[in-house]
Fold this sequence. Notes:
single chain; alpha/beta; Metallo-beta-lactamase, Chain A; 7-stranded mixed β-sheet; about 25% helix; globular; disordered N terminus
Amino acid sequence: xxxxxxALIVLLASxxxxxxxxxxxxxxxxxxxxxxxGFPQAGCYKSHCMPGWDNPETKIGATSLALxxxxxxxxxxxxxxxxxxxxxxxxxxxAPTGEFKLDGIFVTxxxxxxxxxxxYLGREVIGADQVPVYVMPKMQQYLMNNGPWxxxxxxxxxxxxxxxxxxxxxxxxxxVTPFIVPHRDEFSETVGxxxxxxxxxxxxxxxxxxxxxxxxxxxxxxxxxxxxxxDATFYDNGExxxxxxxxxxxxxxxxxxxxxxxxxxxxxxxVWFIHMNHTNPLLNLNSEQSRAVRAQGFxxxxxxxxxxx
Length: 309
């Protein structure tokens, strides 16, 4: 039995320990936790990727969240990933279309793991009717002026809903507030989201440059939230042999842990590392690094996690 398969069994066995929403309270439902290309990554046939090819059930989709509101019977997605078909099925099983309306998709930025799944809403596949897609101004212009995304707009498969920095979007008893973060912005700005429910607040930052480049203090932001699903693309420097990782300036997990070392155990427990590259040992929940992260009081997000709001 492969190490990754053993990790999956551990994950399934521990599913009952995940925080769950009760009654009519809204909740987040994690649809994927990998970096843009998912796990295993296309073209990767190294030892860490092969378990994913050999055992399809161990594949991990790119990072995406669902927001499910039982009271209003609405559901939303954060990010439209290349794994959109599988993630849409997962959401359908959790919140069936006959009962819950897909009332919008929030997109953080124009990198492939975050918006390309919108193509499945087009005439060649679903042929969707006016699905609201919430985007920042540059992202809106990008979708309107570049094919095939512009066709989604012209055929009314999607309806672009403009976001503004720090301007809250009310969704019944929930508000979603975008905030700009520093990142590689070749085609659009990049945002994180604050998701505030009637009881709890979640911070979602799947992509960001080093924490020191952000105008805000990540420790303070975590203290102001109940959950923080934050960028864990790479575990440590040297993870990509032969690559200058300073040109891919995500905060290493080791750096984030150091930056948050002053937090109490209670505050550390708010952190859920997410958006992990195929090289990141945190994708294997049984790895030495995963055990070390949890031993220091932090969490590692996994597909199927529920967080009540």
